[in-house]
């Protein structure tokens, strides 16, 4: 197969001559790299980074330098795409493949959604070939966080997911676990945790042998420009909550103020987590999490460290500071 041009937003000579290359372990620098057109093939030979022909992406496994805190365990697999369109194609395949794996292994696929632009990035799942090939009857759908508003409210994560995804597939309505929007924030959080505990006891949701917490098959997370995930915001006491599975917030720095959210122990018990981040406005937190940032203030996104696999899906703008 013929090689095709591969593009970086940062000049390659600058990338590999600067201190930034130290975050990519064991990269041999070859002078010939700068005397010939850069292709997927030459990139793979010269750097060890795997370019994927025709996909508009490259990836590497980011490894932590030491173990200890959640931010140092391991940063996961990082995939960078030329465009959000390329990202959405790959995310659909990743999700469909995991759905097939878990459906065959245990008859159910438990997937957790978030709000924001994540639902838009799932749009390829409702197109061919997935719309007809995925066994939607095995899906059980949950939310990592939700705004305490009616389900038909413009701010509702349920409404966002229903309009952009759920209404277009044949997931059974009884397998979609939205919050009780008739309850206040604290009651809604307690009710959702009670629901999760029942589903764990009945075997619908798996249990982590390590923690005894619910082990969702796939958690699809977005990230805010301040580095928040779910409704866990920088500097907020809830990032340290380690007793409850689901908790509530009444003073969210991002409106609306009242929300419910999974806590980090539940998030990090997941079998797979996909962190989907697009846009230059989020490049700073991405660099803090994956680069050589020396900032002592740990962002919530840096606390995402699942028992299983973590994959970052980034467009080139979000990765522009790496």
Automatic annotation (TrEMBL):
Keyword terms of this UniProt record: Hydrolase
Swiss-Prot/TrEMBL catalytic activity: 6-phospho-D-glucono-1,5-lactone + H2O = 6-phospho-D-gluconate + H(+)
SUPFAM superfamilies: NagB/RpiA/CoA transferase-like
Domain (Glucosamine/galactosamine-6-phosphate isomerase): residue spans on this chain: 83-312
Enzyme class label: hydrolase
Annotated Pfam families: Glucosamine_iso
A single Gene Ontology CC term: cytoplasm
CDD domains: 6PGL (cd01400)
GO molecular function, one term: 6-phosphogluconolactonase activity
Its EC number(s): 3.1.1.31
A GO biological process held by the record: pentose-phosphate shunt
This protein's pathway: Carbohydrate degradation; pentose phosphate pathway; D-ribulose 5-phosphate from D-glucose 6-phosphate (oxidative stage): step 2/3
Domain of life (superkingdom): Eukaryota
Assigned protein family: Belongs to the glucosamine/galactosamine-6-phosphate isomerase family. 6-phosphogluconolactonase subfamily.
Protein name as annotated: Probable 6-phosphogluconolactonase
Gene name of the encoded protein: LOC111308896
